[in-house]
Amino acid sequence: MKKIEAIIRKTKFDEVKEALLDAEIEWFSYYDVRGVGKTRQERIYRGVVYDTSYIERTLLTIIVRDVNVERTVQAILKTAQTGEIGDGRIFISPVEDAVRIRTGERGDISLYDFK
Prior knowledge:
By secondary structure, this protein is an alpha+beta fold. It has one domain: Alpha-Beta Plaits, CATH 3.30.70. The chain is built from 2 helices and 6 strands, in the order βαββββαβ. Strand 3 and strand 4 (48-51) form a beta hairpin. The longest helix is centred in the middle third of the chain and has 12 residues, at 69-80. The two termini are 20 Å apart.
């Protein structure tokens, strides 16, 4: 099992969500987050200076079986990529075990209902 964390533009969230559903990734968590990138700038609006160096993004956390890792990464890449600075990052980490609380099932089977 792997944990995939993707930091994407907030404007791309709906497209990425649909792409993940099309790739049969039916469960994930997401959070609105802020980060600091390389670009430092201030904007002035009506005489007030605003710091725009804080970047608002969405963080997706997805746990998948090993066979679904590449499909998940490609779904995110194809829909989140604009080619501009600030498209985000994808991180992939190993997951030792998972337990479904309701049934006590462990491992891959705890992630999805097998029919």
